[in-house]
Fold OmpA family protein.
Amino acid sequence: MIVPMVTGLISKLMTAKGWSVSDLLGKIFESKNDIAAALPAGLSSSLGIGNIDLPKVTVPPIPKVTPPKVSMPPVNVPDRNTGGGFIKWLLPLIVIVVALWWMLGKKGCNQTEVTSTVDSVSASIDTVGGKMSGVVDATMGTVEGKLNEAGDFVKNLGEKITKRLPDGKEISVAENSVENRLIGFIEDKNKPVDKTTWFTFDRLYFEPGKSTLKPESQEQLNNIAAILVAYPVVTLKLGGYTDSTGNAEVNKKISTERANTAKNELVKLGVDQKRLEAEGYGPEHPVASNATPEGRAQNRRIDIRVTEK
């Protein structure tokens, strides 16, 4: 009953690995010490597995045959019915079963180890300097817009709508604005807080090379402050970014100053500073190509992430 099952398993393994019979036997005897250790105590010594040595098998080269003078030496085929009987084939069969069990078990352990490593790497997102490229504004899709005369990227945000907040205050926002999407995320109980969901300010602009906000940025800051007042449990993290132009260290310094500037403006508008944190990442994690003016303008930005709601 066991012979067909074992031979079938051996055949599948040899086909998957591309092994010949000699390859299989070689793999088994290379690992004979590990196989013997995997057996129950005393069984390996009683079967003599630890003392088995595989003789080196060499296949003689096939002589070149030139017809019509063919001379074939007689081939001596060993008698398969002679030898030690039942034990002659049972012992190798046991060795092969144990070897297959050991090798397949070892393969399973390696797969588990790799999966655990990947999970631990994924869990480290946002803990070593920001977020991964490609996770910003996942709900918005392709960003459409154009550069204005000042070189700032102006997004197409859709129609203007009025949002009524829980405290009764109404704010005017666009359908695809960061305010509208932020409110949707806060109110959606099926969207948990994580470290990869960020929202990009779409009307927050700074003077070139400085951390000074432009006047047209005030409207969006007022709206974000109103949202935080209406949802008093919500806390935010602000991330500052630049394009890749210039010195990376200088850019990181500017991005940190800009993130803190936006944070301080929200505090001035009535938000408790304990609910806000800010960090600058310089040119890291671009959301567009730095090869075009439009792409560089999109990379000069302030993002926000909900850390508690």
In short: Residues 86-122 form the longest helix (37 residues). The first strand starts at residue 145 and ends at 147.
